[in-house]
Amino acid sequence: MLPVYQFITAYVGEKLGCSTELMVGSSFGQFQAGQVDIGFICGLPYVQLARLRPPPVKLVAAPVLQGERYQGRPIYFSDVIVRRDSPFQRFADLRGCSWSYNDPDSHSGYNVTRYWLVQMGETNGFFSQVIQAGWHQKSIRMVIEGTVDASAIDSQVLAIELRENPAWASQLRVIDSLGPSSIQPVVATRRLPENIRAKVRGVLLAIADDPSATTALGYGFVERFAPVTDSTYDIREMLAAAERVEFMTLK
Q1: Domains of the chain by range and CATH?
Q2: Per-residue pLDDT for 59 more than 90?
Q3: How would DSSP label each residue in 230-248?
């Protein structure tokens, strides 16, 4: 998504008549420290930050992805992938298999998987091995190479990777989809003046109407941006379900 983020960062700056700079964050504490003003973050860190009093971030907008499965809503899925020649047909078949995830702060790779296991009553050890890959792209390669049996991949990321690496499509199968989940939002730090946050939201909500933005957004399969509120992020219920049974470590 980096090319999309780069385009949006420059586009917002151009429309607002100010300089903008895209940086790769090192910590969500950067919002509290005032080191960043606006960020593209995962939904799980958003709901965790929203628990703080006062919350250090406020919602700006969220993308709506192209395709019927997204129903014109700011949602996405976690697609469970395996090697094409593997015998597995659904998530429940993966008992005793090896699993990789991108990062424990990721909803798509970690939180939703943990929630699915809670729903199945599988909190005593479902997988034989769980490996932190660091990135969805590495998890995809690990499945293809046979290093692990399966992984849950952000459906937007998977679509981009399969387009950029068409040979992968013949080596993988999606056996299940976890979700839908509320998609990763754009957030602004609490200290950003409200009128600036409103202007950024206005630019994002109108960006899809600009023909010059079509190609850049399309690279990330983004149809448009939509307004979101805190209640949109019901993935907090998935986190709460794991907390209630003290199942915080994927296994």
Answers
A1: 2-64+183-238 (3.40.190.10), 75-181 (3.40.190.10)
A2: yes
A3: GGG-THHHHHHHHHHTT--
